[in-house]
Write a structure and sequence with these properties.
Chain A: This is Spermidine/putrescine import ATP-binding protein PotA. The complex is a heterodimer of chains A (about 400) and B (about 300). By secondary structure, chain A is α+β, with helices and mostly antiparallel strands. Chain A has nine helices and 21 strands. Chain A folds into two domains: about 230 residues, 3-Layer(aba) Sandwich (Rossmann fold), CATH 3.40.50.300; about 120 residues, Beta Barrel (OB fold (Dihydrolipoamide Acetyltransferase, E2P)), CATH 2.40.50. Chain A starts with about 20 loop residues before the first helix and ends in a 7-residue tail after the last strand. In chain B, strand 1 and strand 2 form a beta hairpin. The chains are: A alpha+beta (about 400), B mainly alpha (about 300).
Chain lengths: ~400, ~300
C-alpha cells in the first residue's frame, strides 16, 4: 500500500467529515503506522546526524519530534518523506518497507517550513498539484479542491495568487495541498514557526482538530516544547541524533528521562546530588527527602510543585513529612493566571536559586524581599541521570 | 507676493538649476553622440545613392527596395538570404547556448563556494580576450588539414579538403562560444537563489523527476534564461566579426551587409536601411522577450 489509488471513493474524508467517527477514521487508516529500525544518517565528512534510531509511530497518532536545531529531527522527517536517504537501517510505513522508495512513490506528504508553494501556479493549481501528478481528471480535481477548501475553511483564498497570501494563509494552502492527496502520513516541518504568536496558537488548534477529524498519522517537527506538549499524543525528544525520550507530553514533562530532556522541557530547578542515603539526597539546597527509588545525579523539582507560605504559617499538610526551606523572594513575575517567583536560598556557604510557579488564586502575593517558607513533597523530588545516553 | 512665496520660488529655482547642472552633461552626451547620429543615419536611409557613393537628395525609398533585393539587374534574393541567415544563426546559436549554459550554470551553482568562483572565472576570462583573436584561434582549429577537420572528413561530415572553416558551422560555433558567458552568468545568478524546497515539494507531491524540473526548477530560472536570451540573441543578430572571419565571406549576416555598404560597396543609404532594419528587429525581439517574461512570470517584470 505504498500508493493510494488516484481515484478515491466519492465522498472522501473531507466531504463526509461530520459523519465519520473517530474509530471509523482510524480503522480506515490502520495502514499508516511507521516503524524505523536502526536508522542512521551520516553525511560525507563524517558528520553523524542520526545514530541508530528505533522508533514506532502508531496509526492515527499525532507524533512530535522535538529537539534543538541540529538534533536530527528534520533529517528524520526528511527520511520519512524520502527526501533524504538513510545511511543504514530500515523504514516501513504501514508494514511495507519503503527504505528505497523515492518520494514521489510514497503515500506521504509534507508541509514544509517555508511552505514551498509554487509561485507561478494559482492557489487552486497549487492545491490540486499532487492530484494532477497522480493523473486525476480535471473535473475530479476541481471537486476535491472545493471539498478541501470547505474542510479547512479556505473561503476565497483559492482564487488568489500565491504572492497575495499572508504567511498564515500560505501555511493553510500548504496544508491543503498536502492533505488533499489523502496520504497515509502527513509530515509537518515546523509549519508554524514563521507565524506570530496569536496566529500560531489559532493554527495549532486548527491543525490539531484537523488531525483528530481525519484520524491521519501526523508527524510534526518543532523546537518549541510548549507547542509539542499542546499538540502531541506522544513526543520524541532528540538531541545529537539520539532519541532521549519517547512518551506522552505528561510523561516527558513530569518524568524527564535525563538532564537534557528536563532542561529542554524548560525545567530550571535542578540540583546536583552529592550523596544519597536511603531516601535522602544531599543537594546544594540541603538534604531532600524523595520517593524516587531511581539512582540519579541530579534532583529535579518542578516549579509548580513548590508550596509557598509565610514563615510562621502551619505546614500545608501537617500530617506529612515535607521538605522545608526558607527562601527570600528576589524577583516576581505576575502573569495573571499564575505568578512566578525567583527565590534565593542560602545553605551555609551555598547559595542557590529556585523558581516557583504559583497559580493565582487571589490570595495575597509575596513581595520582592519577603521571606517565604518553601515546602516540597517528597514525591516531587525527581532523580535524573545527567548521562544523556542513559535514556 | 508674500515673503514665504519668494523664498519658495527661490528655492525652486535653485533646485531646477541644480537638476539642470547634474543632468545636462549626460543628456548632451547622449544627444550629440547617440541621438544626432541615429537621426542622421535614419535620414540617410531615405536618401539616394550618389554617383560617388555619397548620400544625396531626393528622398526616396530606393534603399529599402534595394534591401528587399530589387537592384538594377532585377530582383535577387541575396539580401533576404542574409536576413534569414541572421535570424537563423542567432536563433540556433541561442538554442545551443542555452543547451550548453543551462547544465553548466546548474553544475557551478552546486559546487563548493571556492570552486564556484574559479569555475565562473573560467567561463568569463576568455571573453576578456579580443573577439578577433579568439576568432583567429578557431580558424586555426577548424581549417582544412587540422585534426578536427580531418576527423570530420573521415566521418564523412564534410567534403574532402574543405575543412570545417570557413562555413556556416564555424560561424554558429563561434557565436555559441562567444556568447556562452552572457548566458551562464544570469543563469548562474538564478540558480544560486534556487528555492530547493520547491523542488522537494514537487517530489513530495508525486512529480516524477522530469515534471519536477518543469514545475520547480525551470520557472525559477526563467528570469535568468530570459535575461540571458536578450544578452545573447540580440548581439548575435547583428554580429559582424565572427561571420566576417569564420564565415569566410560566404556566411554573411546583416552586420556584414551593413558594414560592406558603408565600406567597399559604397552605398550608404542601403547600409543605413540595413541598420534601421536591424534596429527594428532588435526592438521586436525585445518586445517578444518582454511579453514572454511577463506572461511566464505571472505579471511581474522579469526582463529589463
Amino acid at each position: 500500500m505504498a500508493e493510494r489509488s488516484p481515484t478515491a471513493a466519492p465522498g472522501g474524508p473531507f466531504s463526509a467529515v461530520e459523519s465519520t467517527t473517530g474509530s471509523e477514521a482510524s480503522a480506515a487508516r490502520e495502514a499508516s503506522s511507521i516503524s524505523l529500525k536502526g536508522i542512521r544518517k551520516e553525511y560525507p565528512g563524517g558528520v553523524v546526524a542520526l545514530e541508530s534510531v528505533d522508533l514506532d509511530i502508531r496509526a492515527g497518532e499525532f507524533f512530535t519530534l522535538l529537539g534543538p536545531s541540529g538534533c536530527g529531527k528534520t533529517t528524520l522527517l526528511r527520511m520519512l518523506a524520502g527526501l533524504d536517504e538513510p545511511s543504514g537501517g530500515s523504514l516501513s510505513i504501514g508494514g511495507v518497507d519503503v527504505t528505497d522508495t523515492p518520494p514521489h512513490k510514497r503515500s506521504v506528504n509534507t508541509v514544509f517550513q517555508s511552505y514551498a508553494l509554487f509561485p507561478h501556479l494559482s492557489v487552486r493549481d497549487n492545491i490540486a498539484f499532487g492530484l494532477k501528478m497522480r493523473g486525476m481528471a480535471r473535473a475530479e480535481r476541481e471537486q476535491k479542491v472545493v471539498e478541501i477548501a470547505e474542510f479547512i475553511k479556505l473561503g476565497s483564498l483559492v482564487d488568489r495568487r500565491v504572492d497575495q497570501l499572508s504567511g498564515g494563509q500560505r501555511q493553510r494552502i500548504a496544508l491543503a495541498r498536502a492533505l488533499i492527496c489523502e496520504p497515509d502520513v502527513l509530515l509537518l516541518d515546523e509549519p508554524l514557526s514563521a507565524l506570530d504568536a496569536g496566529l500560531r496558537s489559532q493554527l495549532q488548534v486548527e491543525l490539531l482538530r484537523t488531525q483528530k477529524r481525519l484520524g491521519m498519522t501526523f508527524v510534526f517537527v518543532t523546537h518549541d516544547q510548549e507547542e509539542a506538549m499542546v499538540m502531541s499524543d506522544r513526543i520524541a525528544v532528540l538531541s545529537d541524533g539520539i532519541i532521549q525520550q519517547i512518551g506522552t507530553p505528561q510523561e516527558v514533562y513530569e518524568r524527564p528521562a535525563n538532564l537534557f530532556v528536563a532542561r529542554f522541557m524548560g525545567h530550571d530547578n535542578l540540583f546536583s546530588i552529592s550523596a544519597r542515603e536511603g531516601m535522602t539526597v544531599q543537594t546544594p539546597i540541603g538534604a531532600l527527602e524523595t520517593e524516587d527509588k531511581n539512582d540519579g545525579r541530579v534532583a529535579l523539582i518542578r516549579p509548580e510543585t513548590l508550596e509557598l507560605t509565610s514563615p510562621g504559617a502551619p505546614s500545608v499538610e501537617p500530617g506529612k513529612r515535607l521538605n522545608t526551606l526558607m527562601c527570600r523572594v528576589v524577583e516576581r513575575f505576575y502573569r495573571g493566571s499564575n505568578v512566578e517567583y525567583r527565590l534565593s536560598h542560602q545553605n551555609g556557604e551555598q547559595h542557590s536559586e529556585l523558581i516557583a510557579e504559583i497559580s493565582n488564586t487571589g490570595d495575597r502575593l509575596f513581595r520582592v524581599g519577603d521571606e517565604v517558607k518553601v515546602e516540597i513533597y517528597p514525591e516531587d523530588v525527581i532523580m535524573l541521570s545527567d548521562d544523556e545516553e542513559g535514556a | 507676493m508674500s515673503q514665504v512665496d519668494v523664498v519658495w520660488r527661490r528655492r525652486r529655482r535653485r533646485e531646477t538649476r541644480h537638476l539642470l547642472v547634474s543632468v545636462l552633461p549626460g543628456a548632451l552626451w547622449i544627444f550629440i553622440f547617440l541621438v544626432l547620429p541615429s537621426a542622421y543615419l535614419m535620414s540617410v536611409a531615405f536618401m539616394t545613392n550618389g554617383g560617388f557613393g555619397q548620400p544625396q537628395m531626393p528622398l526616396t525609398l530606393d534603399a529599402f527596395r534595394n534591401l528587399a533585393g530589387f537592384g538594377f539587374l532585377g530582383w535577387s534574393p541575396g539580401n533576404l538570404y542574409t536576413l534569414w541567415r541572421s535570424i537563423f544563426q542567432s536563433v540556433i546559436s541561442l538554442g545551443l547556448v542555452v543547451l550548453v549554459a543551462y547544465p553548466v550554470a546548474w553544475y557551478i551553482s552546486m559546487c563548493r563556494p571556492r570552486l564556484r568562483a574559479i569555475m565562473l572565472l573560467a567561463v568569463v576570462v576568455p571573453s576578456w580576450t579580443n573577439q578577433v583573436i579568439r576568432a583567429f584561434g578557431w580558424m586555426n582549429l577548424l581549417s582544412p588539414g587540422t585534426p578536427l577537420s580531418t576527423l570530420a572528413e573521415k566521418m564523412g561530415l564534410i567534403a574532402p579538403n574543405m575543412g570545417l572553416f570557413p562555413s556556416d558551422f564555424a560561424v554558429t560555433l563561434g557565436l555559441v562560444y562567444n556568447f556562452l558567458p552572457f548566458m551562464v552568468l544570469p543563469l548562474y545568478a538564478a540558480f544560486e537563489k534556487l528555492d530547493h524546497a520547491q523542488i522537494e515539494a514537487a517530489r513530495d507531491l508525486y512529480a516524477s523527476p522530469l515534471r519536477t524540473f518543469f514545475v520547480a526548477v525551470l520557472p525559477q530560472t526563467l528570469p535568468g534564461l530570459l535575461a540571458g536570451s536578450v544578452l545573447v540573441a540580440i548581439p548575435a543578430f547583428g554580429m559582424y566579426v565572427i561571420p566576417e572571419l569564420l564565415g569566410g565571406g560566404r556566411s554573411q549576416m546583416l552586420g556584414n551587409l551593413v558594414a560592406s555598404q558603408f565600406g567597399e560597396a559604397a552605398n550608404w543609404p542601403l547600409g543605413a536601411a540595413g541598420a534601421l532594419l536591424m534596429l527594428l528587429a532588435t526592438l521586436l525581439g525585445l518586445v517578444i522577450l518582454r511579453r514572454m517574461g511577463r506572461r511566464l512570470g505571472g505579471g511581474t517584470e522579469m526582463v529589463i
